[in-house]
Amino acid sequence: MTSDDTPYDLPDGVPHQMMAGLLSFEASLALCDELLGGAVPGSAVLDGASSSRAEPQSRFDPLNCRRAVIMEIVDARVAASAAAPTTAPFASERICEGVTGEDNLQVRSLCSRLMSSDDLLMISDDLLTHLITSDHH
Amino acid sequence: MQPEHKGWDQPTSDGDVRLKCDSSASRATLAGVGDFQIPRHCTTNDPYGGFELQRCVGEAMGWRIALNTSASTIRAATCVLAQLHRQRVIDDCHLAAHDVGALIVATHYGGRTGPEEEDDLAATTLLLVPHCRPFDCSDGCMHAVMTSLIGVALRRLDGPSHDGVATPTSTASARDSLAPIFSSACGREARTASFSGNQHPLAPDFRSRYDYSCVHGLGHGLGHAVSADDCV
Lengths: 137, 232
What we know:
The structure holds 2 protein chains of 2 kinds. By secondary structure, chain A is mostly helical. Chain A has helices spanning 25-36, 44-49, 62-83, 92-97, 105-116, 120-135; one strand at residues 2-3. The longest helix of chain A is centred in the middle third of the chain and has 22 residues, at 62-83. By secondary structure, chain B is mainly alpha-helical. Chain B is 54% helix and 1% strand. Chain B has helices spanning 40-45, 51-66, 71-86, 94-109, 121-128, 140-157, 171-186, 188-194, 203-224; one strand at residues 38-39. At the A-B interface, strand 1, helix 1, helix 2 and helix 3 of A face strand 1, helix 1, helix 2, helix 4 and helix 6 of B. Strand 1 (2-3) of chain A pairs parallel with strand 1 (38-39) of chain B.
């Protein structure tokens, strides 16, 4: 299932989507809540949800959004750490604040370990694995 | 015996459902990628079907459809990637699907920054997102498309950079800018389009999965906009 001739003009690489610095960490989490929590004026989705055929707000779970935010940041930190081992460690407290309201004890436990561990790769992989497998797939 | 559902594989024992890529019923949807072949250099660089091969295949597929992006080519691309994964040609397809999603958005908006593009983000979202089907490649295409579209929206808000450092966007302006994207991506119209014509018995699960994946994609996009340095 291969071809000798590449029929495409391949660039040097996929254009990466890096846009770091456009939002603060707290702002990204707040946007999860605001966009999904029903406080968005002019949102067709949420306007529709308040109509006579309303759908449960739980369709849009802010915690799901928050988890994805954290996964992205953990992932970026892992990459940065791998590229430059002297990269400063996580401000773990802030990451854990991101799961405020999380009632999953495993996530809380992982967050605590994150706060107390220097092993960024181990913890982040563990955390990511849990977050990915907890209810994503 | 379960009835046949046109265009779909039967549910597997674990409840998964997959769009057929190779049946005559769905062959028309493969227009543009049905003859996709993995470029030789991909297997040369990674003969074991690992990470590099997956990215190389995703990149090749992305460029294959980037200039011919439509609902059918997006569906076909993700479907073929999922099939390559099932056939164990590549060991996973999530990141390959990511590359497809990133490339189609980058191509769509590449070099297009004029005011005439200001209002089409929601429409573009509706064009692209629903056709990155949940269940294929762990939603990699959908997440990458949403991440890229959110990036386009936030960059428009971004003021002039100073020494290459972007100015963080206010939450209010970001919210106002992203709400139409979220509405388009996760609203009923998109969700319906995602499984239009589907009579599959697992349709309720599909709807739930679509909602989950869409919200998760929003989070990925928001997280991607945060500087890694902001958490140190």
